Amino acid sequence: MLSLVIALIVTLGVGYMLYKKYKPQGVLFAAGIILLFCAAIFGTSNIVTAKQSTGTVWLDIFVAAKLLFSSRLAGLGLTIMSIGGFVRYMENCGANKALVEMAAFPLKHVKSPMLIMVVAYIIGQIIDLFIPSHAGLGLLLMLTIYPIMVAGGLSKLTAVTIIATSKFTDIGPLSSNAILAATTAGLDPVTYFIKYQLYAVLPAIVVVGAAHYFAQPWWEKREKKFNINVFTEADESENQLDSNKKVPAIYAVLPMLPLFLVVIFSPFFHTGIKLDVVSAMILSTIVAMVFEFIFTHNAHLVLNDIMKFFEGMAKQFRVVVSLIISAELYGLGLVKIGAIDSLIALATGCSFSTHIIVLVIGLIMVMCAFIMGSGNAAFFAFASFAPKIAGVLHVDSVLILLPMELSAGFGRCMSPITAAIVAIASIAGVSPFHVAKRCAIPVILGFIVHMLAIYYYFL
């Protein structure tokens, strides 16, 4: 029980510091080191294997950190960084904007405000597959779809709420959360997406959209009745996208190219050709450079802009990969101190069914993502525990990882401190707290349906 007490104290400290807006990387990294020191003091387990040991347990703590760095940078980290590089290149050349504009074209011909809302929601869910960043997708939709929704008769707050829930789950083989879940489960990201994510998410997507249709008019009437002020000062500086850059419509196919390649040449379709995500990103970037040269005839510009790809990679290391490593170090500390074994023994001693444990895991992830304002931070901190929990329950680890990964997105979309919600709300000049409140009813209903779908299809 001592291990659980120490883990609880450290975890409460982590939660408090995250609530106080400390950087999650630093908090989780420090918490992991503290827990590993506690494990060394109490001798609960070996920090590293005998072959990897320095000869003293105190230095083994830093060897464990080094091993996490080397394993993640060479595998999952490189995958996520390559995706970030490609997305940054797509933003720079205007291809992401071209994709959203092409998808938004049908909205211009819709007259009913409520129908505009439904179509905009559907467009957001589709584009979600190609743009893995919640904030990036939100800013693009604010630039293209938001003006159409407002001009069509929707209030600013309703339009922003629809955009905020365009990524209430992290799905698709390009999502960093999905890639981590698939890697941990020993699956190909495409297989994980098609065989697991779609079944768990599609019913929730339908329910969230239907809930918006009824919930948003109700909020409009309530806010008008009680004269609730939902506005703040608009800050256009939040929008970092170049709205004046014009590119050919054919550029819209470029952001879709990696997804097409990794799906077609994945083990799921048995084509005999295997293409990993990193290779697909490099190939797609080269294709985009060829497009740029054809349409600009400026070799100097095209070759210089490759630096945008590397800038995107660097940003993903700074923001996402560093978070994965820090969260996994924290997770390693919890494991080495014996807290996870004690917690699992406690749960199995209470004879909880798999259904209850899966529900509890989902609720924990929702709460963590809500508090942290980040689906990545919440999922990365707990993903490494899934195989051990699955082993005790005698189920496939993917059945624990699936609700873990997807539930984090639900919690993020209800948090007023989520970066994407803060950014898009500031552009529209509405309160992020009111945006989060507007998201709550549809997202909660979506979470319930999501859990029922997991029960029905997989448990």
Topology:
Elements: H1 2-19, H2 24-42, H3 57-74, H4 76-93, H5 95-104, H6 113-127, H7 134-151, H8 156-164, H9 176-185, H10 189-225, H11 257-264, H12 277-296, H13 299-304, H14 306-336, H15 339-349, H16 354-372, H17 375-382, H18 386-393, H19 398-412, H20 419-428, H21 432-458
Helix pairs in contact: 1-2, 1-15, 2-3, 2-14, 3-14, 4-12, 4-14, 5-7, 6-7, 6-8, 6-10, 7-8, 7-20, 8-20, 8-21, 9-10, 9-19, 10-21, 11-12, 14-17, 16-17, 16-19, 17-19, 18-19, 19-21
Description:
By secondary structure, the chain is an all-alpha fold. Helix content is 73%, strand content 0%. It has one domain. The relative contact order is 0.16. The model is unreliable at 237-241 (pLDDT under 50). It is a multi-pass membrane protein. Keywords: Cell membrane, Membrane, Transmembrane, Transmembrane helix, Transport. The chain crosses the membrane at residues 27-48, 69-90, 110-131, 138-164, 196-215, 249-269, 275-296, 317-340, 352-372, 379-402, 414-433, 440-458. It comes from Lucifera butyrica.
Give a quick rundown of the structure.
With 459 residues, the protein is mostly helical. It has helices spanning 2-19, 24-42, 57-74, 76-93, 95-104, 113-127, 134-151, 156-164, 176-185, 189-225, 257-264, 277-296, 299-304, 306-336, 339-349, 354-372, 375-382, 386-393, 398-412, 419-428, 432-458.
Keywords:
mainly alpha; globular; single chain; 21 helices; about 450 residues
